[in-house]
Write a structure and sequence with these properties.
Radius of gyration: 25 Å
Distance between the termini: 91 Å
Structural class: alpha/beta
Shape: elongated
Helix content: 40-55%
Largest sheet: 7 strands, mixed
Order of helices and strands: EEEHEEHEHEEHHEHHHHH
Length: about 300
């Protein structure tokens, strides 16, 4: 059943995602582009993390291991081009809105998809897509009304006796589109120079910590958002109040305690609060306490 219930004003509607990951990557010398790692994560896994809120995610390509479960589809014949691939993916979707993505977007994040969906909801257009740094449309970083896509795909198939080999502009040219400029989120990796550029940007100071945490969570199969600031403060207090090696060991024990209780971010925060209080208590003792006493037994009066 298709979900066409309108979302509340200013909120993104429910959506499905179709990720096209079966291209030939000729400009990469035929490399397996979705598997190329940027910031320690495969490009495809980075895109799948961005659309993790989708009710259903369909990847159009030959099946492969991914960081989270997806459904797989394939156009017939394989290699039939983006329009045929999109149609194959749409067969497995049911939501009233569909996000359509390529598998080579290293800087795509959930907020960008939410912005596309809310823009689409507010404008009444058939689709909302990103434009790149040069103002060019990026139809594979876009949110569409599913009914509009199916309508135009049916018309194209009838007019051309199928969809194989048709360029994407044949589809998007028939749709009413609104555009959202975003040079970073629309950046795609077509060449090895693009890959090198993306890897360098991710190591910039403003991104590296978030990128590292995301990479570790993907590698360990962890889907948990926690306040990293709380954990960093705990590590600082443990290192300062106890000893430097106490920082990593304490944060490990906090995570272990939260996992034992099968808790989410709240359990991590509570365990961190307790450990921080303990570390501050140690620091207070080592400094002689607030009243300057050592905390040990009192010496007898000299009399």
């Amino acid at each position: 059943m298709t979900d066409n219930a309108p979302a509340a004003p200013g909120t993104a509607p429910p959506y499905d995602a179709v990720v096209l990951a079966g291209g030939a990557a000729r400009r990469l010398g035929g490399a397996d582009k979705p598997a190329v790692r940027v910031g320690g994560r495969a490009l495809l896994d980075r895109v799948l993390a961005a659309c993790a809120d989708a009710r259903t995610t369909v990847v159009v390509a030959a099946p492969r291991p991914t960081a989270r479960p997806v459904r797989w589809a394939r156009e017939e014949p394989p290699g039939g081009g983006p329009v045929a691939a999109l149609e194959a993916g749409l067969r497995l979707t049911t939501a009233g809105h569909t996000v359509v993505l390529s598998a080579d977007l290293p800087f795509l994040g959930r907020p960008t998809l939410q912005r596309l969906l809310t823009t689409l909801q507010a404008t009444g257009a058939d689709g909302a897509l990103l434009t790149d740094a040069d103002g060019r449309d990026q139809p594979l970083v876009a949110a569409y009304r599913t009914a509009a896509l199916r309508r135009e795909l049916t018309a194209l198939a009838a007019a051309h006796d199928g969809l194989t080999g048709l360029p994407l502009r044949r589809l998007t040219g028939a749709l009413r589109l609104t555009r959202v400029p975003d040079p970073l989120a629309s950046f795609d990796c077509d060449t090895w120079d693009d890959i090198a550029d993306a890897r360098a940007r991710i190591r910039e100071h403003g991104h590296v910590l978030d990128e590292w945490i995301s990479a570790v969570k993907d590698e360990l199969g962890i889907d948990l958002d926690v306040d990293t600031g709380v954990l960093l403060d705990l590590a600082r207090d443990a290192a300062h109040g106890v000893a430097r090696p106490a920082a990593p060991l304490t944060t490990f024990l906090v995570g272990y305690a939260a996992a034992q209780g099968k808790g989410g971010p709240e359990a991590v925060a509570e365990a961190a609060r307790k450990a921080t209080a303990l570390a501050l208590g140690w620091e207070e003792e080592s400094g002689g306490g607030k009243d300057g006493s050592s905390g040990g037994p009192s010496a007898p009066d000299a009399g």
